[in-house]
């Protein structure tokens, strides 16, 4: 794959050569604005804009991650108003592709963060910055096995089926469990990234699986709902729980033992490096096709150490 990278970069540079170094609006479009994770992306993007020269920034997203059509409209609106570039977290790998094609045809560069689009859209973006979600899922599964052993039941509380990050993250978790243990997987259950839905789903899973050894909450609102359900049901500390992302609620759950650990992406870096990368594309510079923004497993033992503080929000 790496041998083909220069050709992709060359094609991207040629197709977008007419953009030049014109300053203008960078449209940051995320899966939803109603999440601390995406607000932290906003903070990083804003910091990068302030360090740069000439560009302005807008930040937008639907009311929920499942409102895919609304996100498509936001991208199309950005194309119609001829923005200088688009930084996008795609909520659906297929539905956003036609809008990305419109941006490509309008010679508006696109940098993706967090979630990949399907193969049909790979010609229409210039760079992708994200956690290696498969590796992150495997890391969570490895931690789960270390805490619960290799037999019993483990539930997966997921978010939006088919989202690029979900496919890698939950897929990596499940595949690692199956390859390295005899743990039985319950689920996955999809919260649509709604905390209240995750709380109700987790409550039901706990009630119907009294012998559950472990549970994995695969993104911020899902993990928060999962944690609250564990507390309310009296199962906090009795079922090994591993979350994903790192807002204040999840940090509290790590500190009080509700969560054994939570895997935290650098959402700030996604915004910061995403805007920097997009500015480089607009200026005609070559950029890598993929950039790993990293993940840290936060536990009670390191939650107050610099390695965790640098990614928590």
TrEMBL record:
Residues 26-286 form the Periplasmic binding protein domain. Its main location: other. Residues 1-23 form the signal peptide. It is found in: Cell envelope. CDD domains: PBP1_ABC_sugar_binding-like. The keyword Signal applies. It comes from the Bacteria. Belongs to the bacterial solute-binding protein 2 family. This is ABC transporter substrate-binding protein.
